[in-house]
Amino acid sequence: MSKNRTVTVCCPECKKESEFTVWDSINTSIDPDMEAKVRDRSAFLFHCPDCGGETYLDYSFLYHNMDKKLMIQYADTDEAAAEFIGALEESWSTDIFSSLKLLEKLLIFDKGLDDRLIEIYKFIVMLRYRQDRKECNDPVLFFYSDDSGKMAVFIYEDGEYICSSQFSDEVYNDLSLKYADKLPEFHKGVMLADENWAYNFLTGNVDGEE
Ligand SMILES: [Zn+2]
Questions:
Q1: What's the pLDDT score for residue 186?
Q2: Are the beta carbons of 26 and 43 closer than 8 angstroms?
Q3: Centroid of ligand 1 to alpha carbon of 115 (angstroms)
Q4: In whole angstroms, what is the distance from residue 62 CA to residue 110 CA?
Q5: pLDDT-based confidence at 128, cuts 50/70/90?
């Protein structure tokens, strides 16, 4: 079952208070309508009944798709993530992210790709990007796939879109040939591939027990 509750939200634009439904857990196998609402982020969009202003609200929740055996704890703060990792004793694939990273991971799993290979690719793209530009502000990279199946990695700086790098099945196969047999076994139940993971892997600091 999905679990939700009603909270009072102060509109950031007109400062008036109104009610909003917050989801503690979303089970998209039992509530299939919620799958689309997570993906277009409408589940997190606060619409002010007074001024019509709209704001995305970030909060921690558990995403659970039983059909795909996928359970992701979305955490809006590092403290929330640490608390969840401490409490975790599940044998599901589980991951900790913030912001749009949940959507990115869902797209990666939809396509049946290994998110670790995608993180390695993103890290390589980021290194090239940093080399090309002497001055840049902590670029953030996202994998994206559109409805036609086209894949790309988008580069953002300070929340602004800068450019994208095409991604293809060919590139994925090359990554797979180069890295797949060197990837560590997942620690039971916990899968945590992100930029830090890719950095440690590429510099030889990842082993199977990490
Ligand atoms: Zn308002």
A1: 59
A2: yes
A3: 39
A4: 18
A5: very high
Mean pLDDT of 132-137: 84
Amino acid at 47: H
Q: Give residue 99's Cα distance to chain centre.
A: 7
Distance from residue 100's CA to the centre of ligand 1 (Å): 24
- Percent of the chain having pLDDT more than 90? 21
d(CA 97, ligand 1 centre) in Å: 29
Ion ligand 1 residues within 5 Å by Cβ? 11, 13-14, 48, 50-51, 53
- CA 192/CA 186 separation, integer angstroms: 9
Q: How far does the centroid of ligand 1 lie from the alpha carbon of residue 15, in Å?
A: 6
Query: So where are the chain's domains?
Result: 3-97, 110-202
- Return the amino acid letter for 186: F
At residue 16, does pLDDT exceed 90? yes
**Which pTM value belongs to this model?**
0.63
Which residues, in sequence order, are bridge partners of residue 93?
A: 70
Asked if 44 and 50 touch (Cβ cutoff 8 Å), the reply is no
The CA-based dihedral angle spanning residues 118, 120, 124, 125, taken in that order and rounded to the nearest 10 degrees = 20
Q: Distance between CA 143 and CA 92 in Å, rounded?
A: 23
Distance (Å, whole) CA 26 – CA 21: 12
Q: How far is the CA of 12 from the centre of ligand 1 (A)?
A: 7
